[in-house]
Amino acid sequence: MNWSVFEGLLSGVNKYSTAFGRIWLSLVFIFRLLVYVVAAERVWSDDHKDFDCNTRQPGCTNVCFDHFFPVSHIRLWALQLILVTCPSLLVIMHVAYREAKEQRLREAGGDGCRHIYPNPGKKRGGLWWTYLLSLMFKAGVDVVFLYIFYHFYRNYTLPRVVKCELPPCPNVVDCFISRPTEKNIFTLFMVATTCVCIVLSLIEAAYLVGKRCREC
Length: 216
Description:
single chain; mainly alpha; elongated; membrane; gap junction channel activity; Connexin_N_sf
């Protein structure tokens, strides 16, 4: 991974964000992305290999695993992190578009021409709407994924033993999940940080709207 490019993206997001946005970015990077890369990914690396059922019936373990784990936690988190960070990149692209348009105007008319965007990073006009919609999209993505996790895994927790009677299992068999306590701790941690990020996004959106109303 090219960390210099990643660092440039982070600095751009941090530059055009409000104070709430900088706190949100710190939470996502430290408590979600780094925890995912450093620890959580390793916890779920053996989920299928160590999913044991007390039967030797061919195919029973695979069917039961697919039933209780329709989508892996770790893959859902990866998709969630990708979707929740994309709107911030759209804000950077919008600012870059403004800067490029301003540069073309200066090259065509010289330094004495009228400036369309005196400060391209100032949240006015279309950029204000882009930033506000990005906040609502980020909060919406986190809410949707919280619902998906709750739908697949009730109360966001995993039991130590699950009972499966799906064919081709010969009867009701007991299946044992690998490291359920550790996985539950990481799941609840990620859920808690997601809730904090949702609250920060909503507070930042309210702050932008309130500030704009006061200016008007």
